[in-house]
Design brief:
By secondary structure, this protein is an alpha/beta fold. The chain is 44% helix and 14% strand.
């Protein structure tokens, strides 16, 4: 009989990964209101913004103002993505709970995304991790293009493992493995996890799936079968990487919550509150969110009316 986890942790990345590629400018007030709504859903982790140069990600130019204006709910970890020392300084001033560093497993994507080679990125991130830990912050790592690269195609698993080893040696407490362009399939997910779980503790790993080809939930189920319990997602399926052509949104938090709850896996997330938060940001973006749960919810509402 298949044994699945009894509970999982869902890490909401919508306010950062979901909004970073949006052309519609969301006001600070609306971002803060949305994050506060997310805090009331039962989510235990919210990535609220990214302290990157606004020239590269204009949608998150208000990072400090947003991070310092939200209501901090006890029991919720508030995190932000940080690319370098300058970004870390602002993130520490904002007093966020967790710092996230990021890089790619493929050389070409790392050059596009960070403007540095992989080997040149290591010392930059090592400095960020060291200082963040010294300031009492936990540090999470994101590794992009784990399952495929828009510029190089397949990425050698040994290269993925090499970069992962380096990140753990720096002192990160968790590594999120990203399917940046949504090319992974369930068999590939399990094959890669078999190798990772031989080297790293299961509770130090997370999965970050994109739904470009409609396989994100299937890939998540494959990871659940391997005992994985931490997953990144974005409400309504918002998101996409500015430096990965063709990448569509993240797996939707509302779809993840529905699926695992129906399977008897606990998340402690209130589905109706999630959908209200999704409706809020949908209205502010002036576009329909494409998660299955939102489409069903809106169809049911129109039938009722």
């Amino acid at each position: 009989m298949l044994i699945l986890p009894k509970a999982i942790t869902v890490k909401e990345v919508g306010p950062r990964d979901g909004l970073q590629n949006e052309k519609t400018v969301i006001s600070v007030e609306d971002k803060v209101a949305w994050i506060n709504m997310l805090s009331e859903t039962g989510l235990s982790y919210i990535e609220v913004t990214s302290f990157v140069n606004p020239k590269w990600i204009p949608a998150l130019a208000d990072c400090y103002e947003v991070a310092t204006s939200i209501d901090r709910k006890p029991g919720v970890t508030y995190a932000a993505l940080v690319p370098n020392q300058k970004g870390l300084e602002k993130a520490l001033l904002a007093d966020l709970d967790e710092i996230s560093v990021f890089m790619s497993a493929s050389e070409a994507h790392n050059l596009k995304n960070i403007n540095k080679s992989i080997d040149d990125t290591f010392p930059v991130l090592e400095g960020v991790v060291k200082e963040a830990l010294a300031e009492g912050k936990s540090v999470r790592g994101y590794l992009s293009t784990v399952f495929g690269c828009p510029y190089e195609g397949e990425v050698d698993v040994n290269q993925v493992l090499r970069v992962s080893e380096k990140l753990f040696e720096m002192g990160i407490s968790e590594l999120s493995l990203g399917d940046t362009i949504g090319v992974a399939n369930p068999r590939q997910v399990q094959t890669l996890l078999e190798q990772f779980l031989r080297r790293f503790p299961q509770d130090k790993l997370a999965l970050h799936f994109h739904d470009t080809r409609g396989l994100a939930l299937a890939n998540m189920y494959a990871a659940l079968q391997m005992g994985m319990t931490v997953f990144d997602s974005s409400l309504g399926g918002l998101g996409g990487c500015p430096y990965a052509p063709g990448a569509s949104g993240n797996v939707a938090t509302d779809d993840v919550n529905y699926m695992v709850n129906q399977m008897g896996i606990e998340t402690n997330i209130h589905n109706e509150k999630l959908l209200k938060a999704a409706q809020f940001i949908e209205q502010r973006l002036n576009k329909k969110l494409m998660s299955h749960s939102m489409l069903v919810h809106e169809n049911n509402c129109s039938l009722d009316s």
